[in-house]
Amino acid sequence: MRAIILAAGSGLRLGKHTKYIPKALLDINGKSILERQISLLRERGINEIFVVIGYQREQHILKNIEYIFNSRYSETEQLTSMMIARTKIFDDVLIIFGDIIFDSQTLQEVLASNDEIAIAIDLDWEKSYNERPDNPKSLADKVLINQKKILRISAKETSLDIKNQAVGEFLGIIKLSGNGSKTIIKKYEELEKSHVGKFHDADSLEKAKLVDILQELIDSKIEISPISIAGKWCEIDTPNDLERARKIFQNIDI
């Protein structure tokens, strides 16, 4: 098992907090977001860790980490950053957003999945947005699930007319098996050769987020499995999110 952390973005919505440092290096009660992620991974025996960086790359100085530089970080998105690291995507792999903080329980729930392509989902997501006034629910990466099958994943409003369905939020953690790794790389390389124009919710393939490639797989009849998590987690997009994360994790030593 290895992990790839996507931490190339500049975090513009955090204003002064990311003027001189990348979002993944923001301090959460004495440890950066990235340090907390790496500590949890190593506790679970995941020591092969790669971090895709871009903005303020010279600030990344953690030891025993392999950094991969996305030189076009300002004009590309998550999918491009992930595929810059594609030579590391084989066998069992975790793909993790560099702007989320989560606890040990959440990671354990993800690692327990045996599916080929699985994504962490919070089914109790909506109440957290009551504490995030700068983040309307319309910005959430929503996942439509029917009988444990993911039908759609998108930040756009999702149709709610299917019986026995649930809507969750994608945390920003993907678990791939060996076959899952091959599947997602193959699909991307097919698109890389021929796709032009818009790509799902993105203006182009280069501007695509991970939800866009996941939806492409779903549309290609490739199953994406939900992992319903009950542990604590936070996404950090705004100054309010930063303060909220510090409060939620103030007594969680990771």
UniProtKB/TrEMBL annotation:
- PANTHER family reported in the protein's UniProt record: N-ACETYLMURAMATE ALPHA-1-PHOSPHATE URIDYLYLTRANSFERASE, NUCLEOTIDYL TRANSFERASE
On whether Signal is a keyword of this UniProt record, the answer is no
Gene3D superfamilies xref list: Spore Coat Polysaccharide Biosynthesis Protein SpsA, Chain A
Start and end residues of each MobA-like NTP transferase domain? 3-114
Q: Which UniProt keywords are given for this protein, alphabetically ordered?
A: Isomerase, Nucleotidyltransferase, Transferase
The answer to whether keyword Lyase applies is no
Q: What is this protein called?
A: Sugar nucleotidyltransferase-like protein
Among InterPro entries, the record links this protein to: GlmU-like, MobA-like_NTP_Trfase, Nucleotide-diphossugar_trans
What EC number(s) is this enzyme filed under? Answer: 5.4.2.9
Top EC class, one word:
isomerase
Membrane spanning segments where?
A: none
Q: Name one GO molecular function term.
A: nucleotidyltransferase activity
